[in-house]
């Protein structure tokens, strides 16, 4: 997994991006400590609330769109090209590592067929909860209404459509428990 370069200048710029968010969204962005935001990361707080604990790092080229509420714990790392879209609620625990190109959505689209035309009928929402000490592999997708327990590894390329209990490894499309972690 790729993280920030350790040069002083890149860390300074990443922390300035973090503080810019604090100035831009004073009533919606609630950090408890310092964090870093990589280049080309877009954050939209469209009436939503973003609560961050200490040491939260978003790498580059990420897209974060919050219309609901997102709470992220301490020591969380989100690598390149994260897509985090919340219409209702996403809660992420402490010490979570998210690899590159991961998508986390708490909603999907509702459609109906009217007069032989496909019509968009709004969104179907379901809160997402991710426990502590979770590792999510590259290109995984977490969908609405899912709860992932503590101490879980989600395999690369997995699509999580149902709850995953604590202390296990899950992978596949749809993600299934591969084995327990003892």
Keywords, separated by commas or semicolons:
1 helix; mainly beta; 22 strands; UDP N-Acetylglucosamine Acyltransferase, domain 1; 182 residues; eight-stranded mixed beta sheet
How would you characterize this protein structure?
By secondary structure, the protein is mainly beta. The chain has one domain (8-180): Hexapeptide repeat proteins (UDP N-Acetylglucosamine Acyltransferase, domain 1, 3 Solenoid). It is 9% helix and 45% strand. It contains one helix and 22 strands. The chain has one helix at residues 8-24, and strands at residues 29-31, 35-37, 42-45, 49-52, 56-58, 63-66, 69-72, 76-78, 83-86, 89-92, 97-98, 103-105, 107-114, 117-125, 128-130, 135-136, 141-142, 147-148, 152-154, 159-160, 168-171, 176-180. The strands form four sheets. Strands 2-5-8-11-16-19-21-22 form an eight-stranded mixed sheet. The chain has a six-stranded parallel sheet with strand order 1-4-7-10-15-18, with no helix packed on it. The longest helix has 17 residues, at 8-24. The protein is globular, with a radius of gyration of 17 Å. The two termini are 25 Å apart. The model has no long low-confidence stretch (mean pLDDT 93).
């Amino acid at each position: 997994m790729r993280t920030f370069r350790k040069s002083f200048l890149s860390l300074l710029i990443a922390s300035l991006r973090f503080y810019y968010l604090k100035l831009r969204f004073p009533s919606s962005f609630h950090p408890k400590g310092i964090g870093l935001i990589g280049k080309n990361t877009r954050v939209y707080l469209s009436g939503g609330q973003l609560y961050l604990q200490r040491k939260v790092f978003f790498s580059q080229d990420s897209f974060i769109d919050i219309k609901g509420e997102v709470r992220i714990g301490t020591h969380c790392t989100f690598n390149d090209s994260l897509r985090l879209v919340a219409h209702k609620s996403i809660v992420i625990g402490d010490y979570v590592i998210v690899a590159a190109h991961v998508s986390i959505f708490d909603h999907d689209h509702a459609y109906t067929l009217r007069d032989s035309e496909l019509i968009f009928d709004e969104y179907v929402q379901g809160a997402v909860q991710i426990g502590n000490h979770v590792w999510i592999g590259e290109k995984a997708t977490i969908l609405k209404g899912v709860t992932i327990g503590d101490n879980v590894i989600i395999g690369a390329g997995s699509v999580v459509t149902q709850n995953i209990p604590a202390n296990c490894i899950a992978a596949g499309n749809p993600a299934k428990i591969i084995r327990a972690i003892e």
